[in-house]
Design brief:
219 residues, Glutathione S-transferase Yfyf (Class Pi), Chain A, domain 2, 2 domains, 4 strands, globular
C-alpha cells in the first residue's frame, strides 16, 4: 500500500485529526507543508478548489474534507476500527463530528483560537478582547453540549476511541491553550478528564503543533 501524504499548514487542528487517525492506524505517512497565505494558490488550489485544508493524497487518489478523509482512512485501514458497529453509537459519532465542524470550530475555535494563538503566533496580532467576549456565549453552549453527550463514558461513543474523539480533541486542545478554557471547562470535569486521556495517547503526542512543524521542516 502506498504511503499517505497530508497537505496542510502545520498547526491546523483539522489536519491534526487526520494525522492522529493515521497514528492510531500505525500507518506510514508524510507531510506536504503549505505556507500560510498559499492556500488559494497553485499547486494547492489544484487539489482543493475552495482553498481549505487538509488534503489527503493516497496512491494518486486525492481527497479533501476532514470528515471524508477520516472515514476513508477507517475503511482503507480497518484496524483498529474507529467507527462503532452499533448503529446508534455510529450515529452519535456522526453527530459529534458535525458539532465539531459547525459549532465548535465555526464561531468558537476559529475565533478564540485565532485571536489568542494563531494571530499572535503567526501574524504578530494583538488579541481583540471584544471579539473573544462575543464568542464566549456560543462557546459555553458548545462545550456544555459536548460535556453532556460525553457523560460518564470514557470516550464519546463508549469505552473505546472513535473518529469523533479524534475529530474533537484537536479543536478542544487548541482551546485549552487559551485563558478562556478555565471558564469553559468549569463544572465540566468529565470533558477535562477526557481531554487529558486523549492528550496522553501516542497519536496526540505525535501530532502536536511542534512535532508537525518539525516534520514540515524535514519535508
Amino acid at each position: 500500500m502506498s504511503m499517505f501524504r497530508v497537505h496542510t499548514i502545520p498547526g491546523s487542528p483539522f489536519a491534526r485529526a487526520v494525522l492522529a487517525t493515521l497514528e492510531e492506524k500505525k500507518a506510514d505517512y508524510s507531510l506536504v507543508p503549505i505556507a500560510p497565505g498559499k492556500l488559494k494558490e497553485k499547486p494547492h488550489i489544484e487539489h482543493q478548489p475552495f482553498g481549505r485544508m487538509p488534503v489527503l493524497e493516497h496512491g494518486g487518489f486525492i481527497l479533501y474534507e476532514t470528515q471524508a478523509i477520516l472515514r476513508y482512512l477507517d475503511r482503507v485501514l480497518p484496524t483498529p476500527q474507529l467507527t462503532p458497529l452499533d448503529i446508534k453509537a455510529a450515529a452519535r459519532m456522526d453527530q459529534i463530528m458535525n458539532i465539531s465542524d459547525w459549532y465548535l470550530f465555526q464561531g468558537v475555535a476559529n475565533v478564540i483560537g485565532f485571536q489568542r494563538i494563531v494571530g499572535p503566533k503567526l501574524m504578530g496580532l494583538t488579541p481583540d478582547e471584544q471579539i473573544i467576549a462575543a464568542a464566549m456565549p456560543k462557546a459555553h453552549i458548545v462545550v456544555g453540549e459536548l460535556s453532556r453527550l460525553l457523560g460518564e463514558q470514557g470516550y464519546f461513543t463508549g469505552d473505546t476511541v472513535s473518529l469523533a474523539d479524534l475529530h474533537v480533541a484537536p479543536q478542544l486542545d487548541f482551546l485549552s491553550m487559551t485563558p478562556e478554557w478555565a471558564a469553559l471547562s468549569a463544572g465540566r470535569g468529565n470533558l477535562d478528564a477526557w481531554l487529558s486521556r486523549m492528550n496522553a495517547r501516542e497519536s496526540m503526542q505525535a501530532t502536536t503543533w511542534e512535532r508537525v512543524a518539525r516534520l514540515a521542516q524535514a519535508a
